[in-house]
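The authors assume throughout that readers already know how a fold can be written as discrete tokens. For illustration, here is how one protein appears when written out as sequence plus structure tokens:
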Amino acid sequence: MLGKGRTNMDERTYHFERLTPINDVDLNVYEEAINYVFDNSDIRNVAISGAYSAGKSSILASYDRKHSNLRFLHIFLAHFEYPDYKVGTEVKESFTPIFT
């Protein structure tokens, strides 16, 4: 018996979606833009930006798959804001080794 206002988990249905990249998206103009970068050797820095889950990694994975003759180095950068953080506050880091 469940208390007032509580429901049984079995009665609810959840829908989950993967947020991992896929490698078969329609590249459209993105392929043309990336080709432009490779066709112009004076271009040294490229950024692909967008909101979380917008498909940035999927574009790169799809381009990589379609152009298997090229080699890629994937570097992912992230910026997180902490609303309660004050400049000058000591930041303590925690490190847990994955391999022993």
